[in-house]
Fold this sequence. Notes:
Number of helices: 2
Order of helices and strands: HEEEEEEEEH
Structural class: alpha+beta
Largest sheet: 3 strands, antiparallel
Distance between the termini: 113 Å
Amino acid sequence: xxxxxxxxxxxxxxxxxxxxxxxxxxxxxxxxxxxxxxxxxxxxxxxxxxxxxxxxxxxxxxxxxxxxxxxxxxxxxxxxxxxxxxxxxxxxxxxxxxxxxxxxxxxxxxxxxxxxxxxxxxxxxxxxxxxxxxxxxxxxxxxxxxxxxxxxxxxxxxxxxxx
Length: 163
């Protein structure tokens, strides 16, 4: 029995990661963090202030260099992060340089921006251009068809007069 418990401990042993070795973190909406010392997991994404309705909240947030002073966190939408706090469970204690894998959570505040993200803007511009060019092409084809039909009738009427 002790041997089985010993094996289970090593099979399910939590992975520790050096905090400074992490180059990016990805947070998912409605997903919970892993936990070892805390009593339960926390939501990976938690909006603290300026939260719009649920449909505008980010589903996925990616943070590059999350533990550096100039970290960059992004998601698509009309909202911009105002304040970001990344909180991870230290492996042995709160001040540990190692953290528990999957234990990080992102708490943030948002504010609305009229400028859309570049990926969204480019996609919208491309679809509008495609529709505009398609309409112009169809109108051009109809105009050419009508012109040729009119010319044919005009040619036939001239031919009848000369005969």
